[in-house]
Structures are given as structure tokens and as C-alpha cells.
From TrEMBL:
The lineage of its organism: Bacteria, Pseudomonadati, Pseudomonadota, Gammaproteobacteria, Oceanospirillales. This is Succinate-semialdehyde dehydrogenase. It holds the Pfam family Aldedh. It comes from Neptuniibacter caesariensis. Belongs to the aldehyde dehydrogenase family. GO terms for cellular component: cytosol. The active site is at residue 257. One of its GO terms (biological process) is gamma-aminobutyric acid catabolic process. InterPro entries: Ald_DH/histidinol_DH, Ald_DH_C, Ald_DH_CS_CYS, Ald_DH_CS_GLU, Ald_DH_N, Aldehyde_DH_dom, Aldehyde_DH_Superfamily, Succ_semiAld_DH.
Amino acid sequence: MPIQLKDSGLLKTNAYINGQWVAGEAGETFPVINPATGEELAQVASVTAVQTKEAINAAEKAMKAWRALPAKERSDLLERWYGLILDNQEDLAQLMTAEQGKPLFESRGEVMYGASFLKWFAEEGKRVYGDVLPATQDRRSIVIKQPVGVVAAITPWNFPNAMITRKVAPALAVGCAMVLKPAAETPLSALALAELGERAGLPAGLFSVLTTADAVAVGGEMTSNPVVKKVTFTGSTGVGKLLMKQCADTVKRTSMELGGNAPVIIFDDADLDKAVAGALVSKYRNSGQTCICANRIMVQAGIYDAFVEKFSAAVAEFRIGDGLEEATTHGPVITEKAVGDIHSKVTAAVESGATVVQGGQPSELGSYFYEPTVLTNVTRDMSLFKEEIFGPVAPIFKFETEEEAIDMANDTEFGLASYVYTNDLGRIWRVSEGIEYGMVGVNETMISSEVIPFGGVKESGQGREGSKYGLDDYLETKYICMGGL
């Protein structure tokens, strides 16, 4: 079934380079598939390394005039883009659900979340301050901030709108230009954003969208081209490490938002109903396909059985299906391969002694669906403890003491998001400071917004997105010494 939009102009299938909608160099295309139905939604242009270089050169040219504009003029344009996204929320949500699979209520929420970064950084971009340092002898020392340069961005399929605006908004706000490679699974959301950006008045070349089936070629040009001064990436740790290596030859700035292995630590003194509700939202949002999903639910022994009972009963009420149907609570996963990867992890855990309380199998609804699953009797030596699941599977671990919980939480190379449920004020401080994560939610799992610094430690990445700190990765600090005064 074709995508039904109020504004058919938002459905683009060509790449967007230097203000033009262009086909692939040799007319090459790739299909975009609806994971709920397996139907082909569109054939989208697949660009090459040569076209990527053209986009980078256009960005360098466009940036010269853009960075010279007063910050308020850049802000006004971002505000117009923000307004157009709000005006077209439903169409953008329909596109997102069709190509990504998440239920419409989640897509509508993501569109608003994505728009919030344009609004936030339209304001923050006017607040890039410098310093006058204390005088020494007959000199004056000044520090100013300047845009880092042309930025290359590579974004994932799980949040095909917000992961773009979270990068492009601060970059443009401070005077940079950006070339973007969206995920091949979800290019339509990126192209619709570019269309709205063009309507808002973005200068040609300032923001290009490079849709492609050849990520290696396009990514290789982005990381090797000396015009690109920074690469920002959201995705797996493995790919992030590869990109960092590729950027080393030209010593590019990088910011990386990589994999996660988020623990939800629930102590005996927690509000059980709130803990169950928070863990449910964190684990199963987007069918478990977020980097800050609850990957390990760790419950203290005294309330373990009660938690499992309440949590499993709630999971049994989920309704999986096509995200375009309003009754659907949880949609498909992104590919058939993802279903296989999820099931192999569940199978390995069961073979090692885990118990399936709910689900545990690919769904009869189709090859892109996996049953929302709850596992108990899981232990630290199972692969589920160390590996990011990225699917609707909740392993529930048991612990005895606070020290054991902290040790379990830190027993991973990842350090993105974490969550703690307790009503003990001292414990809140001890655990929040003792666990090695860039973000800690206390009695709360919905921790993301445009005003907070999103990012991780260890192998979960570097840099922060959102908040006042989100500008830092797109700015260089310059020191000016004035002598002879």
C-alpha cells in the first residue's frame, strides 16, 4: 500500500546534494521496505563516493557565507525549520512508521522530540561566548569560539528523525555545514527533513543528504576527505571504532554515540509499581531497539518474585502488529536478520538454564516480528549479560547486596545509560556515583530531552549531544594574544 501523506511533496526518493534532488551517479537505487508488511515502499537513489565529494565541496563553499551571518539570522532560519516540522508532524510520523516500523504514537513523539533540538539550538547558537583572560604585562589575551568546519554525520535507523536533528541543529547553529548519510533502512525521514529545510530557506550546499546502498564508499570519502573537519556518528561500537581509525589519518574531530548495555537496578525499598512501569517503558520502547534500552533488569532478591509477576503480566497485555494501526503497542524489528540475532541470544540463554516466562519465539505475525519476551534465572555468564540485545527481550537478574549490584552494572565495556530505583537517599548518591555510565536515571527511565547532555563513557562513545554542552563538539577554541599595549 502506498504511503498516504497530506503533503505528497515530502516523499522524496532522490538524494539531496547542493540544493538539488539528484539521482545516483549511474541511476542506481535501493529499496526501502516496510518491516511490518515486507512491502517495498520506494526505490531511493544510491549515491557514490564521487557524489559525496561533490556534496562536501558544496558544503565548504556554503559554509563561508553561513558562518559570516549574525547568529540571530541562523537562529531565525532554524526556527522556521522547527515550525515546518511541527506543521507536518503527522506526515513525518506516517513516513517514519512505514519505513521503520515503530507504532504511530512513538513516531509522533519522535517528530516532536526531533523538532525540539532545532528550537533549543536556535536559541543556544546565540550564546557562544568567549573570554578575556586576566592581563599579563602589556598584553591582552582573548579566547573566541569558531565553527569547527564541514561536518559529516552518519545516523542510525532506530530514530531516523531525532538522531539527525540532534546533530544538524547545533552544527548549523554555530556556523558549520553538514553532509549526512542516513541509514539505508530509513532514508525517507531524512529526505523529508531536507525538503522542509529547503522550504525554511537553507542555503544550497549547507545540508546535503546522501542516501546510498554503498555505505563503505560514502563513509570512506567522508572520513578521508580533508575538507571534512569532524565526523559525528550514532550506531554500533564496532562501526564507531572503524570510523575513528579512518579519521585518524586526517586527525578529524569525532563524536561517537555508540552501543549500550543499560542496567535497571531495582532495590528492595523501591516503589515496585513505578519500577515495573519504568522498566517496561525502557525495555520495550521501539521494540527494544534503542541504545538506552534496559538491557539488564537487575532486581534485589527480596522483591524479585513480585517484580517478575507484575512485569510479566504487563508484557502479556502488549499488542504487536503494524505500527500504522492505532491499536498496536509494539511493532516489528527492523530486519529478518535482526529477528534471527535476537532468537539466537534467547536460545543460547535457555540452553544455559534461563526460563522463558513470556514469549521466547519469532512471532507468527511475520518474519520481522519477535514476541515480547521475559527471561528469568539468567546469570552473569550468559551472553545476554554482556551483549546488547536490541530487541524485545527482558532478562531479569537477581542480586543480593548494593555492592553486588554496582559490580554487576559495571561488568561491561559499555557505559551509556543506567537506571536506579530506590527510596534511600544515601543509596541514590552511592550508586549513582559508583556506576560507570554517562547518564543515570533515578526512579525514572524517560531521561532524554533536548536540554540534557546525552552521551556515554568507556566504549559507549565520546562527546555529548543536546543541552548547552551540545555546542562544544562543533566549536574550536582560538586564543588571541594582543601585545604592545
